[in-house]
Amino acid sequence: xxxxxxxxxxxxxxxxxxxxxxxxxxxxxxxxxxxxxxxxxxxxxxxxxxxxxxxxxxxxxxxxxxxxxxxxxxxxxxxxxxxxxxxxxxxxxxxxxxxxxxxxxxxxxxxxxxxxxxxxxxxxxxxxxxxxxxxxxxxxxxxxxxxxxxxxxxxxxxxxxxxxxxxxxxxxxxxxxxxxxxxxxxxxxxxxxxxxxxxxxxxxxxxxxxxxxxxxxxxxxxxxxxxxxxxxxxxxxxxxxxxxxxxxxxxxxxxxxxxxxxxxxxxxxxxxxx
Length: 274
Hints:
Pfam families: HTH_3. This protein has helices spanning 4-14, 19-23, 29-36, 44-53, 73-84, 88-95, 98-101, 107-125, 128-140, 150-165, 169-180, 193-205, 209-225, 232-249, 259-266.
């Protein structure tokens, strides 16, 4: 947990927010400063409150960088801009413009095009059936045979998430297994951090909390081993919420030797100095 403070600080700075803006009505600014300098680990509820102030969400499927959807550089830049500003309504409208669609030429571009449409459906109206349709169209364009590209893995894991939201447990397990197949042979890409988070989120939605925790811990170790903090704040936020459920609702979780998770469960409540 030594990196928690760094991750919170980085997330706050990326949003150009001050410590006082984040800590207001949650904790003192000095407490937040001590957390950010790794002098204290916040209890789960305090961490949840800080993450919510930072607009961290469970279902935030955030790509690092972007994928090209067509041959026109300007159109690719527009699509990336809409996506990274979370303007999914405009992104969806942009993707449906005939002038954009007619410049989508090869299989890779078509795969990315349908993947972005799937994300728009998920973010705008929780359109799981429509998202599933787009994801299957995207995956059908994969041309690498047994070797999965990062985009193909993301398509598979996002489809697992859709299945989980629909309560289709067998399909969820199968899709997660497919997304991770031979991952150790892949060249590292920061977007691969998403695999662990979305898999854990999928397990969470079908109440497989043991598997969710196990996957979160693997994902955090995977990211840190590659000197990345991408999706770390989301992973810690999800883990803190599971910890709160275990402590308060007695969900029947069999706690194993999860080093990070147990630090949440067994830590003393941090008492802020007046």
